[in-house]
User: Fold this.
Amino acid sequence: EEMYPVILVVGVNGVGKTTTIGKLAGQYHAQGKRVIIAAADTFRAAAGEQLKEWADRAHAELIGGQEGSDPAAVVYDAVAAAKARHLLCDTAGRLHNKKNLMEELRKMNRVIDREYPEACRETFVVLDAATGQNALQQAREFKEVADITGIILTKMDGTAKGGIAVAVQAEL
Assistant:
């Protein structure tokens, strides 16, 4: 029986989380998998529209909240709709407001654990390859509140600093 993953995508603002989700959704669609995307970044004004564009390209269903709505409520709705589909959850990336962000991530995780305990869980931290050592610090901070299972490096075309993935993997 196929396992349907629930993938939470975390990372600071501007690293490429939303684009990464769009690309993952496209890959899953190309493999004949059904995909649902949760627009749980309800803070960034254009996040919903950007995800809608990606969801349409990947023939994925988008579950979105209104701007300013509760991200955990979006995840709740998405989990309810996602049985037998791959679920990709976009999240807001505000590390400067760490306490709120971290509480929000915990809440989303609790919703998934409670509503879909049998799900195959993944939490990917997205890091911008060009940030170098700072990426390691970002990964550490997300590791404090989320069970990070993978790293996605973005913007590799503009840098030779991809080695940070080795440092992050070695430490975390």
